[in-house]
Amino acid sequence: MFTGIVEELGEVTAVENLGDASRFRLRGPVVTEGARHGDSIAVNGVCLTVVDHEDGEFTADVMAETLKRSSLGALAVGSRVNLERPMAVGERLGGHIVQGHVDGTGEVLARTPSENWEIVKISLPADLTRYVVEKGSITVDGISLTVVEAGSDHFTVSLIPTTLDLTTLGRKQPGDPVNLEVDVIAKYVERLLGAQGADR
């Protein structure tokens, strides 16, 4: 489980096509400190498994299904990525509960700068609309954010300078894809209410 608080802005250093999968090598000296084979690291919000690591870099295999359902397939050598290690038991939950299981992808539609923050408008797949509410939580490329406006086919988030400086959202431009993970609590509530209705 993750919190959506990005620890490090990493970089893709190699991409190997394995046919039905890809192997990524990523630079991230903070997240690889103390890492072991089999550990999890979230890359742009996607939970990946460490295959090996050395000199501040790690490799992870990404299957075709993940490449298809997330924006990881668009990564190339030199791409910057948000990195986060799983939350340790007993630590503060600074963001919200993030599983690292991408629900879909959106696209940056517009950026509106202000003096001290920036509003970013992102498209929202129709099947995720019901989970996104004003002032609710959403994960964008692994970043825990608060929804400012929830539209029928989009939502907006307000980014502070720290988020702009230390994550990929400071660099994303209109047309760029982003990974989206909705609040898992909303999905569980929906499932439970559906089951309750079926029992009546």
Walk me through this protein's architecture.
The chain has four helices and twelve strands; from the N terminus they run ββαβββαββββββαβα. It has helices at 29-32, 64-69, 161-166, 184-199; strands at residues 8-17, 21-27, 40-43, 46-54, 57-63, 80-84, 104-113, 118-123, 137-140, 143-150, 154-159, 177-182. The strands form two sheets. Strands 1-2-5-4-3-6 form a six-stranded antiparallel β-barrel. The protein has a six-stranded antiparallel beta barrel with strand order 7-8-11-10-9-12. The longest helix is centred in the last third of the chain and has 16 residues, at 184-199. The protein starts with 7 loop residues before the first strand and ends with a helix. The mean pLDDT is 92.
Which key terms come to mind for this protein?
200 residues; alpha+beta; six-stranded antiparallel beta barrel; six-stranded antiparallel β-barrel; 4 helices; 16% helix
Low-confidence stretches: none
Proportion in β-strands: 35-45%
Instruction: Tell me how many strands there are.
Output: 12
Indicate the overall shape: globular
Strand order of the largest sheet: 1-2-5-4-3-6
In helices, the fraction of residues equals 10-25%
Terminal Cα span: 34 Å
Structural class: alpha+beta
Radius of gyration: 17 Å
What composes the largest sheet? 6 strands, antiparallel, barrel
Quaternary status: single chain
**Number of helical runs?**
4
The helix-strand sequence is: EEHEEEHEEEEEEHEH
Kindly report the average pLDDT value: 92
Pfam family, one: Lum_binding
EC number: 2.5.1.9
Domain Lumazine-binding: 1-96, 97-193
Keywords: Repeat, Riboflavin biosynthesis, Transferase
